[in-house]
Amino acid sequence: MSALDELTRAYRERDRAALEWKAQGGQVVGCLGSDVPEEFLIAAGFLTVRVCGDPRVSAEAADRYIERAFDPFVRSQFARIVVDGAYSYLDHLIVSRSSDALVRVFYYLRELRRVEPSLPVPDLYFFDFLHSRYRTSALYNRDRARDLKRVVERWCGRPIAPEALAEAIATCKENRCLLRQLAALRAPGAPRVSGVQALRVIGASMFLPRKEHSRLLRAFLAEAEGRSSLPGVRLFVTGSAQDHSHFYELVESCGAVVVGEDHDWGNRHFSSEIDTTADPIDAIIDRYHLRPPSTSRASVSMRVTALVEQVRAADAQGVIFYILEKDDAPSWDFPEQRKALEAAGVPVLLLDRQPYQLADMEKLRRDISAFVESIAGRDQPAQAEGRTRVREEVVR
Amino acid sequence: MTQQTTSASDTRTPGWRGRASVKRLRSATEANAYQREWFAGLKQRVAQGEPFAFVNADVPQEIFHAMDIPYVVNQWWAAVCSAKQMAPYYLGLLNERGYRQDLCRYCSLSLASTFDPEPEKGPWGGLPKPTIVVTRLACDAQEKIFEMWSREHGVPFYPLENTVPLKVPERWWEKTPRQWEELFEPHRLDLMVEELKGLIRFLETITGRTFNETKFRRVMELINEQEEYNTRTRDLIAETVPAPLSVTDQIPSVMIPQWHRGTEWGVSAARAFYEEVKDLVDRGVAACENERVRLMWLGTGLWFNLGFYQHFEERYGAVFVWSIYLGLAADAYARYGGDPLRALASRFVSMEDLLHMPPWNSEWYLKEAKKNQIRGMVHLVSASCTQAVQGSYFIKKTFEDAGIPVLELRADTVDARTWDDARMTAELEAFLETRLGVKP
Q1: Which of A69, A272, A276, B192 has the fewest CB atoms found within 10 Å of its own CB?
Q2: A134 min Cα distance to partner chain B (Å)
Q3: Residue among B99, B166, B389 whose CB faces A69 most closely
Q4: Interchain proximity A100–B386, CB inside 8 Å
Q5: Residue B299 in contact with partner chain A when CB distance is under 8 A
Q6: Which residue range forms the structural domain that includes residue B144?
Q7: Hey, are the CB atoms on B389 and A328 less than 8 Å from each other?
Q8: Between chains, do A114 and B359 touch, taking CB under 8 Å as contact?
Q9: List of E strands, B198-309
Q10: B407 within some domain
Q11: In terms of Cα–Cα distance, which of B282, B273, B311 is closest to B295?
Q12: B303 falls within a domain
């Protein structure tokens, strides 16, 4: 089995590594949201897994507990915890303040543990991490990180030694560094790794022990560096998070290559360096606090600037906004982001109010194909034919 | 079917209009009159170059009073636009700019109103241009909406952070007035105090006004006085059967003074409201002589259709005697002792929890329901705003476990375009007849 096969397997069988870890006597902590500083957990000897949804499974059974004002990805995550019991194996679950919906999910989960104790909701902790880029928030976050460290120490029954924390920081740094090398193979200009592969490789790091993921990733990078560049219109994906690769598969079957994204299950997962020379708390908090903004926790202007920069860095020829129904934050960002991109000569495609599971595939395929062809025809008429042929082959 | 779909190309007022409520109380009429006069004065002051702040409801307005900076509250102005049946037109202007129709409308309607090319045709001659806009980062949309204000109108924007409690207190309403320091986690209060200090310095710099500490202390004292009257009014309504008034009179009588809390007028209006209710009770006057069932309206007001409530009084003797507005004024605002800025921080640090988070909200709602002799609860569940969804499962379970039936109505609080009046009326009538056993 190649390194990519192993990473893809970890991406598909998301609980496998965690269950093996448990079988060997280890403890597993779930992370709901993208701002949980995994460094503390790794330093304490825990395996961390990111809580995901499942677009194949209806979340309706959870609708009695959670309102439909929440986007379907969050409702699916909630359903998997509360109804499916998919995370009953977790020793603890940390919810981070990564979106307003997740704040409410924390309240709901906590209250369900009280009023419906038979439901399989793991032991809970909330990490109250602020995103506004002010000194007051930076100091507040440091205090919350110290609180979290104390809680984790209580969970593991011993203090986290400075050496252990330093090693965990180095482990995470190395993994993110390797993931940045992966990003470099997607852009600019001549991508050698498809968006689907990249999404799976990145996602696998949320389910595997980090050192194991780094080992596999190193092997994959060595293999991928020798590849020739992929044909297709280079697209950037923004909007709602993509915790599964189905949408990327569809896009790349339409003659495109996804060369970058700004959501939490893609490039944002490993963006920003951590300063290993600084105090560990400072270093960890700065890394999470100062990385490119997520749509839920940033002003429109921050999001506009960040998107234009990332699209330019990825050398993308177009941007797809894929926004789930009820996911309001990216919809507030969209009009200004569109203006800025179009002013920069970058065409955009809006796929709005989407269900969690891809629906009306033929319409989506038509819209994406038309978008891809319009870019191909505009940018490189001579190469467009070749790409169309490639797309047809993929579709067949 | 009376559902409306209106775009900005339609006329300013839609074909279907919500019903205005019929005010029965002098205090409600006087509060509305005062607000109109105050608003006219505000426009004059702004025209003369004075600063003017536009703030979200969960921003501590006491600071603006202490600096003599007039302000308008986002949700109040949205409610006025909605009551004037302007929401479809204004929201259409927002939608024409590429914002989808089902985004949060309560918090964006005021902004949408400023896109009107003829702003003077707005309610009360339209909203003047603010000098500064301030909000709390209590949901994903707030920062985006208020930054749009800032960029659209070239005015500075100041965001205040919002935090989440890890502890769940029991019976918080008993501790808010005097035990607030132990009720709220110290690190949350510490941060909020720092946030307020930053806001004060920012306002001082931007407006040239000085924060008057003496006036601020007086503002805090006046608010306690005002809320004491509101508590007495709430208690009086709760214990009086049939109820002397319903929510249609309560809302203006309590909320307009609440937006002016910390002023002498706010206290006098709250006192007048109490005295008028007391007089009604003493004379045995009821909102509905034929009161047969007392209802609770949970959620924000149905601003475009405030007459909705009165139909059920007339047809069923079903009286909405409780809304969050008077209950919250009675239980959540008063603060005694301690440093006044920290006391103010404690008033706002957990506003979101008290209103929107179970079990803070659900247990308090039940306490209020029992106190007000409620037999049925109607819960307006927002279909588009995560901030306004508040754990409807937990609220319903808490009430129904206590034997109080619950009806959930899904609608937007300001947007009449998606309101189906006939269906909503039928749903509530069916609830009254089948769950509460009340016949016309």
Answers
A1: A276
A2: 10
A3: B389
A4: yes
A5: no
A6: 26-435
A7: no
A8: yes
A9: 293-298
A10: yes
A11: B311
A12: yes
Q: Using CA coordinates, name the residue in chain B closest to A337.
A: B98
Q: Is residue B1 part of a domain?
A: no
Write down the pTM of the prediction.
0.94
Split into its structural domains, chain B has a count of 1
Selected for mutation to probe chain B from A71, A151, A328 (highest B CB count within 10 Å) is: A328
Chain A nearest C-alpha distance from B381 (Å): 9
The ipTM value here is 0.94
What share of residues in chain B are helix, strand, coil (percent, to 5)? 55, 10, 40
* A69-86 per-position pLDDT tens digit: 899 999 999 999 999 999
pLDDT in tens, chain A (396 residues): 999 999 999 999 999 999 999 999 999 999 999 999 999 999 999 999 999 999 999 888 899 999 888 999 999 999 999 999 999 999 999 999 999 999 999 999 999 999 999 999 999 999 999 999 999 999 999 999 999 999 999 999 999 999 999 999 999 999 999 999 999 999 787 899 999 999 999 999 999 999 999 999 999 999 999 999 999 999 999 999 999 999 999 999 999 999 999 999 999 999 999 999 999 999 999 999 999 999 999 999 999 999 999 999 999 999 999 999 999 999 999 999 999 999 999 999 999 999 999 999 999 999 999 999 999 988 664 444 444 333 333 333
A vs B: CB pairs below 8 A? 111
CB-based contact, B197 to chain A, within 8 Å: no
Which domains occur in chain A, in start order?
17-162 (3.40.50.11890), 188-194+231-395 (3.40.50.11900)
* C-alpha pair distances (Å), A290 with each of A55, A90, A182: 31, 29, 22
B318 three-class SS: strand
Contact call for B145 and A297, based on CB within 8 A: no
Asked if the structure places residue B163 within a domain, the reply is yes
Q: H helices within chain A, ranges in order?
A: 3-12, 16-23, 38-43, 72-82, 100-115, 135-156, 162-184, 195-204, 210-224, 246-252, 280-289, 300-314, 328-343, 361-379, 381-395
Cα of B44 vs its chain's centroid, Å: 26
